[in-house]
Design a protein that fits this description.
seven-stranded mixed sheet, 7 strands, Aminopeptidase, single chain, 145 residues, alpha+beta, 32% strand
Length: 145
């Protein structure tokens, strides 16, 4: 795949895009999990740790969101969403591989959570993430060096 993925910090100007992206990528999973999908709840999820949000650009066009926290000895993937029209092309895998490579160099653990109804968990398992805990709706996974 000859593609250029870049990132830019998300801003308030991205709210409409992020709301649309989140509704397309996450609301089906929230519905399947019997979790709220109203606009206000969706907006709160977008605003959660918004200072760590980056728009994923493919050839300079927005295709998703990466929200990542790299504090201390752990890297936490808070949110990773790829627009459904761009899914299945390996973009998420490419982004996660880069995160895992950097974390391995720095001897950091990478953590994330995934809804039990979200098939993205198969990607995480294929990359070496292990389930370390779970609650009613989510699996908590880690990748350790």
């Amino acid at each position: 795949m000859n593609t250029t993925i870049t990132f830019r910090k998300a801003s308030e100007n991205d709210m409409d895009y992020l709301l649309d992206l989140r509704m397309k990528t996450m609301n089906p999973h929230y519905t399947d999990s019997n979790l709220p999908t109203d606009r206000e709840t969706t907006l709160q999820r977008i605003l959660y740790q918004f200072d760590k949000a980056h728009i994923i650009l493919l050839d300079h066009e927005p295709v998703g969101l990466l929200k990542i926290n790299k504090d201390g000895d752990k890297t936490e993937v808070l949110q990773l969403q790829i627009d459904p029209s761009q899914q299945g092309k390996g973009l998420g895998k490419m982004i996660l591989n880069d995160i895992l490579k950097e974390a391995s160099t720095e001897r950091k653990t990478v953590s994330l959570s995934v809804l039990k109804t979200n098939k993205a968990q198969n990607l995480y398992i294929s990359l070496g993430f292990k389930m370390v805990d779970e609650d009613e709706h989510s699996y908590f996974m880690e990748f350790s060096v």
